[in-house]
Write a structure and sequence with these properties.
The protein is mainly alpha-helical. The chain has helices spanning 13-26, 31-38, 42-60, 64-74.
Length: 75
């Protein structure tokens, strides 16, 4: 998912987090490159990436039936 940023609009927190994750995981950019592009601190980027990694790990440790229900409920 790509989020477009417009100069006359401030992106929401969720949009910024999605963009950071896209830059890091899909475009293989490091924290410093993301910080320059997004005008964010390295600490904030690290928190977003670590939170996403922890969530992914939690999802992987759920029973398959719970994972299936989660995916079904999300569409």
């Amino acid at each position: 998912m790509t989020v477009e940023f417009y100069s006359n609009r401030i992106p929401s927190r969720q949009e910024r987090e999605e963009r950071v994750l896209d830059l890091h995981f899909n475009q293989n950019k490091n924290y410093r490159q993301i910080a320059q592009e997004m005008k964010m601190s390295l600490r904030d980027i690290g928190e977003i990436v670590n939170r996403a990694k922890e969530e992914k790990e939690r999802q992987e440790h759920k029973p398959l039936s719970v994972q299936a229900y989660d995916k079904f409920s999300k569409g």
